[in-house]
Amino acid sequence: MAKLRSRRSALIIIGLFLVMIVLSMVSLSVGSVSIPMKDVFRSLIGQNMGSSELILWNFRLPRILAAILVGAALAVSGALLQGVIRNPLASPDILGVTGGASAAAVAFMTLFTSYSIHWIPVVAMVGALLAVLINYTLAWKRGVSTYRLVLIGIGLSTALGALTMFLLISGPAYLAAQVLNWMTGSIYGTSWKYVQIIFPWIAVFIPFSYVYAKELTIQTLGEATAMGLGSRLQVTRVIVLLYSVALAGAAVGVAGMISFLGLMAPHIARKLVGNSYSLIIPVAAFTGAILLLLADLAGRMLFMPLDIPAGVFTAGIGAPFFLYLLFKRKPIR
After folding, report:
1. Which of 67, 114, 231, 284 would you call most buried, defined as having the most Cβ atoms within 10 angstroms of its Cβ?
2. Residue 1: pLDDT band by 50, 70, 90 thresholds?
3. In 3-state terms, what secondary structure has residue 222?
4. What is this structure's pTM?
């Protein structure tokens, strides 16, 4: 039975990887300028294709890689939060993580216009960390209650949203459209520099998160059971929260507010492979990447020549999903 379950999980991971590759190839091929799939393959293996080469390598490929990295980062961040808080409604959006990252990034863009925008991911991570520290401090009472984390996070997200709008209104008028587009959640115009900025964070913190997969699986059994099995509950909670913050902050710094992706992907992963975090983490990463690739592809193709931010589609799907969970799902035990 265990072998069958293991084989099924491996097939799911391979299947998701192949779906991600197929979606990436389709995204490279379609757009305002269509490129035949054979030309896409020829360009990827190094054969010069003229103007198609410029479109593929300078515009579409970095955008697709950014979608994969941002989607994986938000999905794993959400999975870590749901595991450590043991609440299916937990996500970077709800706990104030993305709110803190967004407020810090908007403050940087409006108040420090002379600095390079390549600092935005770092600033966003600092903002996300400060938001979590405030949330964690306010929720502390001889330990941290998961319910207090969620409730304070909702209030903190609302306050940070108000602060972000104040910064936007009080900032330079010429930045308003750019900042609003970024806040909606978009990977439009993503260059290789942004891919280079986010890649090290993904390459470090997703494997580091996997180290705590067993601890997270144990903690889903409940605090008393986890402590009885020797789990270092508070230490693990702090470390995993920091990993989640780093991943979400890096993603927000590159793509803005991609709403509900960190909520949906872990649930889909849990439905596919169960409650073992050694499987949830990689499956959630691939699922998040696929969801964001689909949202970006829909934004590019459905309303041409307009390019709709991917965050519009994730929010449109995620909001009903959140309501469904709110009324139908039980907390993770």
Report:
1. 284
2. low
3. coil
4. 0.88
